[in-house]
Amino acid sequence: EERSRLLEEKNELILERNMDIQAKAAELEQSTRYKSEFLANMSHELRTPLNSILLLSRLLVENNHGNLNKEQVEYASVIQGSGNGLLTLIDEILDLSRIESGKMELEYNFVQVEDVSNEMKALFAPVAKDKGIAFNVEIQQPVPQMIETDRLRLLQILRNLISNALKFTARGAVTLRIAGERTDAISFTVEDTGIGIAPDKQQIVFEAFQQADGSTRRKYGGTGLGLSISRELARLLGGVISLQSEEGKGSAFTLTLPLQQAAAATVTATTAPQ
Ligand code: ADP
């Protein structure tokens, strides 16, 4: 009898604790929702004035009809550059808050792999050329011609990985390698011969606002949001991003995506994330 009384008491305690945990979880969910809403509203409010800053500074740079001297045009282009940086930050924060609150809407379409490759070449070949490094795109046949995914989000992830690769590489090459992984997945590997990432930073760089070089006087600009957004987008698309890197030698980020949305679950289950 004593035993059953004790058991009952124990059960009650467990029940109480469960209710406690549930209340805490609900509270947490609520505050996450507030945060996301706040961020979404703020981003929207910030954009409106920023748009006029961007528009007017562009007019000053491009259409000043010789009314401004060289120094003044330079000031205007600094305003434009900083404004663009701010816009990127706002867009990234908005993306992240959409992802966190489960409001990121995806639009699936059939995407030609060749188109993706051409688009990346058109976008990044000039940037690479400016920096004096090579930009190669290799399609390792046999590769499926078409994949079913959200085109814009796929391009966003690749843009992020390739612009990072170019940013952290001073000489050598950046390569986008597209390969058919198994029968139901495709991989996009962005490889560089840049500064690389130390083993103890390889997880951290995927976290929001985290950079491998955390010092305040760091050499490279950026928000530290790109990789965390990319990893979350990859997950939403049913895929994963993994990283292999060696300090001083270079990095390779691999995005693996299912060929079709129906296969999404198997890619996440069988491709171990880093
Ligand atoms: P950002 O580039 O704006 O700092 P990211 O989230 O895209 O933000 O990247 C986070 C950090 O990961 C970078 O600051 C950098 O330290 C590291 N990193 C990302 N890509 C590379 C790369 N290709 N080579 C070396 N370091 C990288």
UniProtKB/TrEMBL annotation:
One of its GO terms (cellular component) is membrane. This is histidine kinase. The chain holds residues 494 to 767 of 1192 of the full protein. Keywords: Coiled coil, Kinase, Membrane, Phosphoprotein, Transferase, Transmembrane, Transmembrane helix, Two-component regulatory system. Residues 41-261 form the Histidine kinase domain. Its main location: membrane. It is found in: Membrane. It comes from Chitinophaga japonensis (Flexibacter japonensis). The keyword Zinc does not apply. One of its GO terms (molecular function) is phosphorelay sensor kinase activity.
